[in-house]
Specification:
It is a single chain. This protein is mainly beta. It has one helix and eleven strands; from the N terminus they run E-E-E-E-E-E-E-E-E-E-E-H. The protein has one helix at residues 166-170; strands spanning 17-23, 41-47, 65-67, 74-76, 88-90, 95-98, 110-112, 120-122, 132-135, 143-145, 155-158. A seven-stranded parallel sheet has the order 1-2-3-5-7-9-11, with no helix packed on it. The longest helix is centred in the last third of the chain and has 5 residues, at 166-170. 27% of the residues are buried.
């Protein structure tokens, strides 16, 4: 069956790290009604959640690490409500079909999107600082825009195990 886990935190501003991992019975996860201003790391990994409302983290300006890998997230993932203080965003192993590169937080240093269902990605729209690591391996990419316009010493883009023609990778 499915389970609902209710966690009540008396002083949410003192919470620094919160992890839920490898509990496939969990199909919903929400941060409700409280400002988690001190939260630095949030991991909800290998559950059965199909969506995650990033707007619940809009006031979590201390958040530097968000791991939502290995879930059932699908469709468009919206990173725009996340603080620009976030440095690592792990979304690998879901079924995400779209993410707007222009909405990626500017403070991000690492974005893992491997093993999703992305078909295209415009690297030139990412305004994250240097160095920046982007993993797009094992998607359904047929187009990646502007990979050669990047300085390989400052941005790393991994695109193996996709459907990209050689001309698209080297263009």
């Amino acid at each position: 069956g499915n389970y609902t886990i209710l966690v009540t935190i008396v002083t949410p501003s003192s919470l620094k790290i919160f992890t839920v991992a490898v509990v496939p019975e969990i199909n919903s996860f929400e941060l409700i009604g409280t400002v988690f201003t001190g939260l630095q790391q949030l991991s909800v990994v290998a559950t059965s959640i199909a969506s995650f409302d990033t707007s619940t983290l809009v006031n979590s300006t201390s958040l530097t690490f968000l791991n939502l890998g290995g879930n059932l997230l699908s469709g468009t993932f919206d990173p725009s409500p996340l603080s620009n203080n976030i440095q690592q965003l792990y979304l690998q192993g879901n079924a995400i079909t779209n993410i707007n590169p222009a909405d990626i937080p500017t403070g991000l240093l690492q974005l893992l999107l491997n093993s999703n269902n992305l078909t295209s990605f415009d690297v030139s729209q990412v305004s994250a600082p240097f160095p920046f690591e982007l993993s797009l391996q094992s998607n359904s990419l047929t187009t990646i825009v502007n990979p050669s316009g990047l300085d390989s010493g400052t941005k790393t883009v991994r695109v193996t195990s996709n459907f990209l023609p050689i001309s698209e990778i080297n263009a």
